[in-house]
Design goal:
- The chain contains four helices and no strands.
- By secondary structure, it is an all-alpha fold.
- It has a domain of about 45 residues.
- Helix 2 packs antiparallel against helix 3.
- The protein is rod-shaped, with a radius of gyration of 30 Å.
């Protein structure tokens, strides 16, 4: 092993787009939809890798000796279970995404009042309905009585 190494040889590779370095102050924000899309992409990759491993293990099982056959069969069964689990997970997530109607950014929600509008309503007592009830901050209401 070479005792002298450069910083380029020991430095970690570039970070994935959209991810923050472990020591950085501000982590990159990611929307839930983007996170789900990234996770689905990872699951599809894992499924493809598991299918590739299944094909490899089938080939190894064909060459197995009497002594190693049982071990290779059990490992092939584990890989097939993993494939079934990943397939079901992907199918379930895709089904949920398809069943859920996508919301537009504007939505149909009533816009919130601005700070100035809230201050005006509080000063005039006009809240658009009944007057708000005031709540005490204590749990029993006996903190002041002694």
């Amino acid at each position: 092993m070479n005792a002298t190494t450069t910083s380029a040889e020991t430095a970690p590779g570039p970070a994935a787009p959209g991810s923050a370095a472990p020591g950085s102050a501000a982590p990159a924000s990611i929307t839930p939809a983007a996170a789900l899309a990234r996770h689905l992409e990872w699951l599809e990759f894992a499924l493809a890798a598991a299918r590739s491993e299944e094909a490899w293990r089938i080939g190894r099982l064909e060459k197995a000796t009497k002594k190693s056959r049982e071990k290779r069969e059990s490992r092939l069964a584990e890989v097939r279970d993993e494939i079934a689990e990943l397939s079901a997970l992907l199918e379930g997530i895709r089904g949920l995404r398809a069943a859920r109607p996508s919301r537009s950014p504007g939505g149909t929600r009533k816009p919130r009042a601005t700070t100035k509008q809230r201050a005006t309503r509080a000063a005039t007592g006009a809240s658009g309905g009944t007057a708000p009830t005031r709540r005490r901050r204590g749990s029993t209401g006996t903190e002041g009585a002694a």
